[in-house]
Design goal:
Helices cover 22% and strands 47% of the residues. It has helices spanning 2-20, 30-36; strands at 26-27, 42-46, 49-55, 60-65, 68-77, 80-87, 92-96, 98-102, 105-108, 113-116.
Length: 118
Amino acid sequence: MCYVVKFSSILLLTVGMFAAVPALAKTLTQAQIADQIVDKNLIGHRKGVTVRLRYNSDGSVEMKAAFIAGAGTWAFVGDGLCMMMTKGPKRGKTCTGFEDLGDGSFRNSEGMILQVSK
């Protein structure tokens, strides 16, 4: 009986160690952002609302959600980008980086998961 308890404890500890280790996501460089995100239609969700986002190669950015839309400009800063929204409800400057989650999915530094629309 004591053997079963020890084996169960070891098994749970081993499984717990593997479950606690998150997958390592790679932060994208400027070149990777340009290749994988710029000029792509991105879809994400914020507070239960679908958000569509597009960073265009001409430096413009467009955002659309249920009943709102925004637009502005963006530029690379380090291994991320900053956008200046000049139209829409969330105006102002926001800077973000991106992690590659694989399979066309990215997490920005605000925690939003974005998927390249096919």
